[in-house]
Amino acid sequence: MYFDVIIIGGSYAGMSAGLQLARARRNILLVDAGERRNRFAASSHGFLGQDGRDPGLIATDARAQLERYPTVHWLNAKVQTAKQIERGFSVAVGAGELLKGKRLILAMGVIDQLPAIPGLQERWGKSVFHCPYCHGYELDQGRIGVIASSELSMHHALMLPDWGTTTLFTNGAFVPDADQSSQLRARGVVVETVSIREIGGERADVVLEDGRVIVMDGLFTLTQTSVPAPWAEQLGCIFEEGPLGRFISTDVVKQTTAKGVFACGDAARAAGSVAFSVGDGALAGTAAHRSLMFDND
């Protein structure tokens, strides 16, 4: 089948884009590798109508609703290549099976790279987070640590006192200057300059190199993010440099710099959340539909 639109990525942004196209009775294919970014988290917050639910259940329900539309096709596979052809795009999956579509929507998300601290990765999404709006409230105004990954962590440290008693662990990532130190004091942030040996305990105990253990109810850190495939660039998509990593540049309706290619969700934002991804996907889906109707090139 020659699809109207192939959507790469079947998480929140991809499914939201697919829903708009399904309701326009377009034949679409979602290709998903099953690596949803928030798969490590037990609950999702800040998405209206779904607050506090298991993010996996949100995704499962969304897929079930989407697949009720007869023009929706789903393939559990990893995309190997994507390239432009005469009448649209060719996508190779698995061992090389070729799929073709008139339009392409990139919704493959990003990969998070955490600071290299023992014990941090296994607590990611459970007691170590990146978004205060998504997870700060549940810490119940408790003891919150910010592990610096760069000077950008100042933003985290200045935000988080609204959610609890905050300690900034500079961990050799940067040294606050006089003005920054003044800002931190004004917000009641404690600064700990001794480097971190590991994260231990049931939740998020910070073990310092001098042997001290500082008990925390939760930790926040800024990850470095990357789009997990080279073919966005190969398709001609231009990237922007964000504070956390590169992301695909789009216009206000999620059209990339490559004609016929749209992008949405975390791969096409400087920072994201479930709510942002769903909105992004809706924009990309409707824009792709309009291009099918009105763009005859």
From TrEMBL:
Keywords: Flavoprotein, Oxidoreductase. Pfam families: Pyr_redox_2. Residues 3-271 form the FAD/NAD(P)-binding domain. The keyword Disulfide bond does not apply. It comes from the Bacteria. This is Thioredoxin reductase.
